[in-house]
């Protein structure tokens, strides 16, 4: 005779102790459901007792359910299910599938709320006239007033699909957007698209049509494409503002990386017939992770490329180069404008600056500023006063650093990242910080008080291959445009503009 409490063996000889525990909890919860049903249908029970029991049971729902190894509790079906460890079973149930299902249901719920924006007003107390009246009476301080106004504007943005036109019908709707980068005037957007047979191709979108009710843009393509991954893109002002585009390509196998400077006129249909300008400069380098163009006159026509364990500063006209050795790969870069200072973010988490007025020398003496994050740095953004630096890393942390005191003064919560290269978008004119997470959600924070203003879901299911790329501008489409957000995902383009 078996002793009480001994393990039960299945036909394979495995212990079913956890199965018996799960069945016991399922039976107990079923009896609780029957008990609630009896109380609700009993004429002697009062409504107040029923409501009290229901509220107490619902509040203790999550806390009363223990977590059993190898089992998953479904709150909708109110029972445990066994997690299958392998992929050879029929309809396997794993934690990854459960997590993806929960994220998808959350995304669909947020999309429904986005679609209802036309039918509902903003939250109570967030209307422009009462806010202005309270501000005039001195009931709202300037910080709270600015935050509420930005929250009002950002939450009133509605998603509208943009129609993409092109002289070549094969350009539109065939390849997925990987990256979009707007020029200084926000009149053009350089695009990097993934090609079906592998590699990338480039194009330029003219945003002048965003000011019309039709929301149409024109996209121009060219014959330049590559079978290598594009790691970084930035606009370059060589002969005139935003006259060129700087590309950094990743090396594969025995093929080294490449840095190329393309004239923007390659993508224009207004150039004279027969005029086919080529690349201004293209040179082979080790794997290039990042690039930046300098707008300061003291380093005129210079651009930087972040390589494996070094930084290379090149003059595009003379070809003169400066090399700065580092201890880690340089993943993010940006130049200051008031001084020829280059800020760099490394895979090791170090952030340092280089003053180009000082010649490169051995050792670490040329590092003017040094900051440290706990993970690889994915983006660095210099604020207009050039006394503050916004930095994000691969743990999802976004910090604002005071360069004078070398300390973090603000931190923005909610960003999602584990290992992806995700850029930041800082817009001081509107007081906004925008970042797309690895979960494919676009989040908008108030730059002043770090308040999360809005979370925009992707129109498509979350996937590491379909992370949206965004552009925000105070004058989207040109000098007469309104503030808005441009979002590119897969082969579609969406516009979120202020009403």
Automatic annotation (TrEMBL):
Biased-composition ranges for Basic and acidic residues? 30-39
**Repeats (WD): which ranges?**
373-411
User: Which InterPro entries does the record match to this protein?
Assistant: CUL4-DDB1_E3_ligase_receptor, WD40/YVTN_repeat-like_dom_sf, WD40_repeat_dom_sf, WD40_rpt
| Compositionally biased residues, Low complexity | 45-64
Any Gene Ontology CC annotation? Cul4-RING E3 ubiquitin ligase complex
Q: Which Pfam family, any one, appears in the UniProt record?
A: Beta-prop_DCAF4
Top-rank taxon: Eukaryota
Q: Does the keyword S-adenosyl-L-methionine apply?
A: no
Give the region (Disordered) as residue ranges: 28-68
Concerning SMART domains, the annotation shows: WD40
Keyword terms, alphabetized: Repeat, WD repeat
Q: Which PANTHER family does UniProt cross-reference here?
A: DDB1 AND CUL4 ASSOCIATED FACTOR 4, DDB1- AND CUL4-ASSOCIATED FACTOR 4-RELATED
State what protein this is by name: DDB1 and CUL4 associated factor 4
Q: Which gene encodes it?
A: DCAF4
